[in-house]
Specification:
By secondary structure, the chain is of the alpha+beta class. Helices cover 57% and strands 13% of the residues. The chain has a 3-stranded antiparallel β-sheet with strand order 1-2-3. Helix 1 crosses helix 5 and helix 10 runs antiparallel to helix 11. The termini are far apart.
């Protein structure tokens, strides 16, 4: 996006699209950490493909203006450097989840991957119906990824606001727990941070018992702080 203020939204959309595509078992999707290095240092599609050992590249841009969003996305064969398909989405902000699921479906079609019924259901599932909560969540992810104690504290504030807007937003509670673990005594003693993390992760699991991210945080707490190897 040409607007620096939309960076959090573009990064969040990138992460969520990676997450959606990762739910398709027949696809091997490169992690966000490996992908985001090219954000600041853009390279040609063929160079990216070689470095990541990826046969197909999906790239795009997003522009957001109030409650409108435009997403431009294209899918490129990295070996032959040719377009497989491209699409522009001009939608209301609350339609962003349907845009993501549509892109994932188009990718599967182009790669001749058959989506199982449960995969299609998972891809279509929206984490929250409250768009204000979702925007706060994306801002929290953006701040948390910066990594400093002050950034993590800001991230927690955003996630807590997201949870206030939608008390059933399980992923917001996961991120609250994850970031309290990330503070790790730097700006808050573990004796305060870890009980808050435990409370948040239990809330997340009560809303989504199958959330892998929640189980991951709970395992980290059991391993690093409770020394409960069996539970971890």
């Amino acid at each position: 996006s040409p607007n620096p203020g939309d960076e959090y939204f573009a990064d969040g959309l990138t992460e969520e699209l990676i997450g959606a595509l990762s739910k398709i078992r027949e696809l091997s999707v490169i992690s966000r950490t490996s992908v985001m290095q090219f954000k600041a240092k853009p390279k040609s599609v063929s160079e990216v493909g070689k470095e990541l050992k990826a046969g197909t590249i999906i790239e795009g841009s997003v522009r957001k203006a109030e409650n409108k969003v435009r997403v431009t996305v294209q899918m490129i064969d990295a070996t032959e450097d040719r377009h497989l398909w491209a699409e522009n989405y001009d939608r209301e902000l609350q339609d962003i989840f349907s845009v993501q699921s549509d892109i994932a479906g188009r990718v599967a079609d182009a790669l001749k991957v058959e989506l199982r019924a449960w995969e299609s259901e998972q891809i279509r599932e929206a984490p929250t119906e409250n768009m204000e909560a979702h925007v706060l969540y994306l801002k929290g992810v953006y701040e948390g990824d910066k990594g400093s104690p002050a950034d993590i504290e800001r991230a927690i504030q955003y996630f807590e606001l997201a949870a206030e807007k939608d008390p059933r937003f399980a992923r917001a509670y996961v991120e609250i727990a994850y970031n309290y673990v990330g503070i790790d005594g730097e700006s808050m003693p573990a004796s305060r941070a870890i009980p808050k993390a435990k409370e948040a992760v239990e809330r997340a699991l009560s809303l989504g018992a199958n959330l892998a991210e929640a189980h991951n945080v709970k395992a980290t707490i059991a391993f690093q702080y409770d020394w409960n190897w069996a539970e971890a």
